[in-house]
Structure formats: C-alpha cells, structure tokens
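Dear colleagues,

As part of the handover before I leave the project, I'm documenting each prediction I ran so the next person doesn't have to rerun anything. This entry is a single chain, and its sequence is reproduced below.
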Amino acid sequence: MNTLIQQALAANTDLRVAEANLLEASARFRESRSQYVPSTTANAGASYGRDQRVWSGPDRAPTQWSYSGGMDIAYEVDLFGRVRRDVQAAHADRDAVEAARDAARLAVVAETTRAYVDACGLGQSLHIAEQAVAIADKQLQLTQQRQTAGAATQLDVARAAADLAATTSTLSPLSADRQSRLLELAALLAETPANIPAAARDCAQIPTLLSSIPVGDGAALLRRRPDVRAAEYRLKADTARIGVAIASLYPQITLGASASYFRNDTLPSNEHWSFSIGPLLSWHFPNQLAARAQIRQAEARSAATLAEFDGTVLTALKEVEQALTHYQATLQQQATLADAQRYASTAYTLARQRHAAGAATFIEVLDAQRTLIEAQRSSVAAARQLGTQGVAVFRALGGGWETEDSAQRTALR
C-alpha cells in the first residue's frame, strides 16, 4: 500500500500540475520581493555611418563609428507601505498555492487508498460469490438426483436452477466493478490500463486500520486541513491588497540616477559624459476618485474572502463529524455482522456433524454453508465500507494523525 501511495505522489498528473502552480507562485513572490532592491537598466550601442549635420567642412562627412552606453537606477522609497503590503500579498498567494498543493496530495493519497481498498474488497467478494455459485450448482445437482429418485419434484429442480442462475448473475457486476477500481488506481498512478499494479490486481483481502483515530482539538484539526490553510492565506493576501490600495492615496517617491557616455572615431574630442540624480514624486492628486474606488473594491474582495474562510471552517467541522459518525456506525455494523458470521459458522459445523452422524441430509449442510457464505459476504461488504469510511475520516482530518506530514502515508495496510 505504501509503495502505491509513494508512486502516486511521484507520478500523479494532478500533483504535477499543482507543483508547477507552486513554482509559478514562488516566482511571482520573488518578483514582488525584488521591489526591495533598486531596479537597474543598462544599455549600449554602436553605429557606423556619416552625419552631415555635425560636419562643418566643405566635403562630405566621413564615415565613422559611434559608441554609446548608459545605466539607469531607480529605487522606490516605501514610505507608505505599498511595496511591503504588495510583498505580503504575494507571499500569502504563494502560501495559498502551497496549501492547494497539499490538498491535492491529500486527495491523491485518499483516492489511491480508497481505490486499493475497493479493489481488494471486490476481489474478496468475488471469491465468496464464486463459492456461493459452487454451492448453488451442487444443490441443483443433488435436487436433480433426488428428482430422479422420486424424492423431489420438477418445481424443486426449477427453484434450484433459478437460484443458481441468480447467484451466477452476481459475478459479472462484481468483476466489472473490480476492474473499474483497478483502472481508477492505474490512472491515479499515471499508468496505462495495461500496467495495473500486480499488488492491486492480486489483492483479495481488505487491508485493516492499524491505529486508532484521535481527532484532537478543533485548532489542531484546522491546522491540518489544507483547504482551511489555503482559505486563510487567501484572506491574508486580500487583506494586504487593501494596504496596497490605500498607499495609492499618498505620493510615490522614487530615487533615480542615470549615467551615459558617447564618442565617435572621427572626432576623438567628441566624447560626452553625463549623469543625473534626484527624486521623482508621483501622486494622484487632487482627483483621487479612482484610488478610493480601488480601496472599496479591495475591501469588498476581502469581505468576500472572509466569508469564504468562515464557510471553509464550518465545512471542515461538518465533514469531520459526518465522517466520524459514519465510521462509528460502520464499526457497530461490522461487530454485529461478525456475530452473525460466528453463529453461521457454528451452525455449519453442527450441520456437518449431524450429517456425519446420519441425522441430517447433505442439502441441510449446503443450506447451512450457504447461510455462512451470505454472512461472509455481508461481513466483507461491511469491511469494505469501513475501509472507505476510514479513508473519509483520514481526508476529513486533513491527513494522517501520526505526524505533521502524515498526508504522505496511509493508516491502512
């Protein structure tokens, strides 16, 4: 199971998209952070030709090489926090994308585990169904023999044949469902349908939960949920953008410096150096209607993001309670079905003993065995449901519960 999960985390296409999105967001953050240092622009050029306008002699101006170069430096003085708040917004955006990546990892782990559990459970159900078909076929043969001996009627044979056909009809849907889960697992592993993992294809025993499920307090839950973290970071980003918008009400001050050089070959004395340095003030004043409208837009976006954050928290708490409720109910159902299977096994053992002593017919033994098979089928269905509910709890809790990075592992074996 762990091998399949590690393979999914390494190759899943959705995760590759999420990783690429994180790289893009990290690059945008670095771009925003570059505003803390001066921006520089360098230029250089060379040209060949003649310029009659600068030639004072009677002849044509000679051809010549001319060279030029320069550099400009600009630095925004962040007196009113525009740059600082812009960097904070970019940082929060990057963290939100990282949380979305973690949510994608959690989804891949959960879906891979669920597909594997379903494939194993359906394989076990298919094996039990094949046993039920064998029992129904044996019972039909015995009924036909009893009819030949005059101890059964044609109606008994028809009923046994109908029972065999009905039991056999369950094989194809189970096989198709199992193949569907295997194909789903292959897609999660970024494999083609022809490369279904042998471990899943040959699995016929449902994995069981090895550890208990301590939920912890609400704060710990909210820290684990990547969707809650993503919503929190989006709220931080939109709140920081309010500061960016407010800064547009105030002057933007930039310190600049530039230097340039020019010379040509024909007139060596025609060489020029120049430089300049000074501040530049830019201010949207007195008309600040657009700036104030942008502030109101940023505040509205932040209010909407806050509502989304509150909704995400409530959804997280609801999903945990729902998952735990279903998990506990399935645990109780499994315990009851285990009792039923135990009683059915005892009845089958007693029927065999009575048949060996000549006190019961073989058909009674087959009936007891059929009851046991049905109990096993119900137990397997409950175990499969329990595995699915365990995955739902794992996902609702925001990952595993053993370490902070437990979303990379599963609690199922």
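The two ends are 6 Å apart (CA to CA). Strands lie at 39-49, 64-77, 252-264, 271-282.

All the best with the project,
I.
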